[in-house]
Amino acid sequence: MKKKRIGLLTGGGDVPGLNPAIKEVVLDALNADYEVIGIRRGWGGLLWYDFDDPTTHEKYVVNLTRNDVRSIDRTGGTFLHTSRTNPQKVRQKDTPKFLADSDLGKPIDDKGTMDYSDHVLKVLDHLGINALVTIGGDDTLSYSARLYREGFPVVAIPKTMDNDVFGTDYCIGFSTAVTRSVDLITRLRTSVGSHERIGVFELFGRNSGETSLISGFLAYVDRAIISEVPFDMEKLAKFLHEDKLANPSNYSIVTISEGAHMIDGEIIESGPADAYGHRKLGGIGEIVADNIEKLTGQRIMYHKFGYVMRSGAPDSLDRMVAMSFGNLAIQLVQRNDFGKMVALQGGRYTTVPIEIVLSGNKQLDIDAYYDKENYKPKVKDFIGVPMFLT
């Protein structure tokens, strides 16, 4: 009897914990007598798979064995690679040549943008994939939901170091991002303090300020600016100047989410929009640093943490969650319980309908965890609060 075949892919930004999740999915699937096909470069692997070009078969598809995943959990990132490809919204310049004149695309606007979901489904059928396990953030998982609506069996695993996927309290990558950030803040204190400056540290975080808030909370920074609450520049500068003067070592520190913005200001974005409509964020920290220096006359030490937050091997919590999510995903496949995303809610593993990722952007509970008048993390009551305040 022919074995059933599971497809596996990772999409969007890389985070620590992806490889342990991949490994667990593969090992559990093999133990359950499935075959596992790795799809390289996320949804791009299915979009760029050309039936008539064998070189694309080797480039985008790989059979996964125990030996293939034996040691991948020791490193960060994803050994399957990733991309931000959105097959239901492919711009003309991003369209594979072999698809440009095919009948597998449906126009979605007058600019040549196409929906190639028919091609994706045809590739999945060609590869003999009976079910798909996708690991990604809300963008990757939104297309997973689309495929499920088309009738294809899908199980999803949430990852993002912003921890902003709707429907789960926790996403793979968040703990390591916070751990890295706290470590960096602690190390940078020596330089900020030695030079008696105000430290401005910009962290990843588009719609959710959790990385700034939790990292700032754990590292005891003076102020934390988050995506959800617009801030007053003059007020922040005054606070940080006062914090510096009150510190025996004569320095102060603020963390700031890359998606934060001033009152009546705009989020700082640059470059063209990606396939999901997102432009590159970043630069608000530098603007804040310049303004603080002008308003206070104090010297500033600015640092953008950037990709170092999401690089390297996962910490123990991200390993635990990644392995547990991978195990739960295969349980769902075995039960033919598709259209679900594995999740953590209230500290317990569970599942939710994958469509929930389309419900909106998950954001912080400001009333419970943030003093928006003084720009400080503030947990009002720990009774009943989840371990990671999410």
What does this structure look like?
With 390 residues, this protein is α/β, with parallel strands linked by helices. It has 2 domains: 5-172 and 314-359, Rossmann fold (3-Layer(aba) Sandwich); 175-311 and 365-377, Rossmann fold (3-Layer(aba) Sandwich), CATH 3.40.50. Helix content is 35%, strand content 18%. It has helices spanning 18-31, 44-47, 54-60, 66-69, 97-100, 117-126, 138-149, 174-194, 210-218, 233-246, 284-296, 316-334, 366-369, and strands spanning 5-10, 35-39, 61-63, 106-107, 114-115, 131-136, 154-158, 198-203, 223-225, 252-257, 269-270, 280-281, 300-304, 340-345, 348-353, 370-371, 376-377. A 7-stranded mixed sheet has the order 3-2-1-6-7-14-15, sandwiched between helices. Strands 9-10-8-13 form a 4-stranded parallel sheet, with helices on both faces. The chain has a two-stranded antiparallel sheet with strand order 4-5. Helix 8 packs across helix 9 (210-218).
Question: How would you sum up this structure in a few lines?
Answer:
With about 400 residues, this protein is of the alpha/beta class. The chain is built from 13 helices and 17 strands.
Give short descriptive properties of this protein:
alpha/beta, Rossmann fold, 2 domains, seven-stranded mixed β-sheet, four-stranded parallel β-sheet, 13 helices, 35% helix
Structural topology:
Elements: E1 5-10, H1 18-31, E2 35-39, H2 44-47, H3 54-60, E3 61-63, H4 66-69, H5 97-100, E4 106-107, E5 114-115, H6 117-126, E6 131-136, H7 138-149, E7 154-158, H8 174-194, E8 198-203, H9 210-218, E9 223-225, H10 233-246, E10 252-257, E11 269-270, E12 280-281, H11 284-296, E13 300-304, H12 316-334, E14 340-345, E15 348-353, H13 366-369, E16 370-371, E17 376-377
Parallel strand pairs: 1-2, 1-6, 6-7, 7-14, 8-10, 8-13, 9-10
Antiparallel strand pairs: 2-3, 4-5, 11-12, 14-15, 16-17
Helix pairs in contact: 1-12, 8-9, 10-11
